[in-house]
Amino acid sequence: MDSMTFVLFGATGDLAKRKIFPALYNLFLDEKLAPNFSIVGSGRSPMEQEEFSEYVEQSLKTFSRREDNDSRMKEFLSFIRYMAVDVTQKDEYAQLLDLVTSREKELNLPENRLFYLSVAPQFFDVIASNIQQSGLGSTKGWKRLIIEKPFGHDLPSARELNAKLSKSFEEEEIYRIDHYLGKPMVQNLEAIEFANPILQALWNKRHIANVQITASEIVGVEERAGYYDNSGAIRDMIQNHMLQMMMLTAMHIPEKVSANGIREEKKKVMEALRPLNPENINTDVIRGQYSSGEIKGEKVIGYIDEPGIERTSKNDTFIAARLWVDNEMWEGVPFYLRTGKRMTEKSTRIVIEFKDPLRGVYKDEAGNALPNLLTIEINPNAGVSLQLNSKNLLNEGKVEPINVMFYSNEENVPEAYELLIHDALLGDPTFFAHWNEVELAWKWVQPILDAFEADTAPLHHYKAGSMGPEASDKLLAENGFKWW
Ligand SMILES: NC(=O)C1=CN([C@@H]2O[C@H](COP(=O)(O)OP(=O)(O)OC[C@H]3O[C@@H](n4cnc5c(N)ncnc54)[C@H](OP(=O)(O)O)[C@@H]3O)[C@@H](O)[C@H]2O)C=CC1
Ligand SMILES: O=C1O[C@H](COP(=O)(O)O)[C@@H](O)[C@H](O)[C@H]1O
């Protein structure tokens, strides 16, 4: 691991407090940072160094998964400095550069600089440009930029943003965080698919009937009305997390299992995705919005009654979609995506339903087919289970499904942000979204955004606490399937 300076813009914000400082601290405790490093935090608010150290200490005590260790915490805090900078003011970057270089000299650090923009997206381009123009980006070592989603609001704005960032950073220097790519089970997908010859042999249209990717949430819009009502589930979850999981599930084994190999295969999946048009949007995409209901015994209000939401809002809090990957490997196999707020349970999972060549021979007591299912549980549980069929001798030898299960119950598994920050420090982009993927994802999603904007797609209401509108079940029933 290289010694470096971690420059954090937005150091006084929510993400820094809840995720970034705890992740850095956990990496420090696990000796995954170089012995010598510098962290320079910056926010808009003026703060004395001591006050900032106390603020970070509080964040670590509240959000780090590790037990308190006063001396190690003090040591970690000694690496951190704070400076208030208004990121829109070009001339303020000179002082930041002075602080960064003086710490580099003091600690004898090479000029390796990682810039993490944990700020609102409208600042991404101005910060990248000011980093470059102020000399902060003119290093003798490496420089890298981490940005958070949302990466654009639609295809044109994403392209515009990328063009601006590209003036200051090369594609290889940009690390676009999609926190789902940091989830241990998502990182494990490639191994599940390719390191198991049994599954690898079956991972194609000959053996797989359909693929279902669900990310259901219990929470509603929370305190994010301003953001969410302008984004909806389509921008918030589908364009990024859901399509990323789909790419990883559908990709072909790369010739070389490397960052470039994997990213190339993911890109091919997106290129093979059947484009949407005004006709198939209405048959293949379900837009939903929650109305009032009950979750775990508690009554909850409908979306349009939430504080900050207009009563006329047609925003999508639920999306189900049927996708077709038109390539040799997946021709004719539907991929179903489903995500929403205020659903029955919090669960992110991928279910692979295998074909049943003996369709009809074995059925359950109600006459339903018993497909083999491979379920990859991502969140909140991490595990894999395989549904097989077996004779139950205690039930007159009837064929019944049994589950072969593995659940990861390791304690202290690194969190997504730890894994991702560690990778970025190592210069490993495997689990970051390449611009190609981001652009192709926006390209696929854009006709849906247009249809929602023009209000040509129906809005289906679903009861809070359900698994979405009926139309979402019909989407699968049309092909003879059901959600698992
Ligand atoms: N919070 C989360 O869980 C998640 C956040 N994200 C993304 O991460 C990014 C940060 O989010 P979050 O931490 O929640 O946002 P916050 O609003 O909590 O924090 C914003 C930060 O930006 C700083 N800031 C605002 N304006 C300026 C300015 N003109 N000059 C310098 N600094 C400024 C603030 O400084 P100050 O406080 O001093 O005013 C603060 O440190 C966003 O892109 C968000 O979409 C992504 C996933 C999850
Ligand atoms: O990016 C986002 O993800 C969360 C869900 O993440 P998870 O790790 O809890 O599954 C979602 O609630 C939020 O709206 C979205 O912005």
Automatic annotation (TrEMBL):
It catalyses: D-glucose 6-phosphate + NADP(+) = 6-phospho-D-glucono-1,5-lactone + NADPH + H(+). Residues 7-188 form the Glucose-6-phosphate dehydrogenase NAD-binding domain. Residues 191-484 form the Glucose-6-phosphate dehydrogenase C-terminal domain. The active site is at 241 (proton acceptor). It holds the Pfam family G6PD_C. Belongs to the glucose-6-phosphate dehydrogenase family. This is Glucose-6-phosphate 1-dehydrogenase. It comes from Heyndrickxia acidicola.
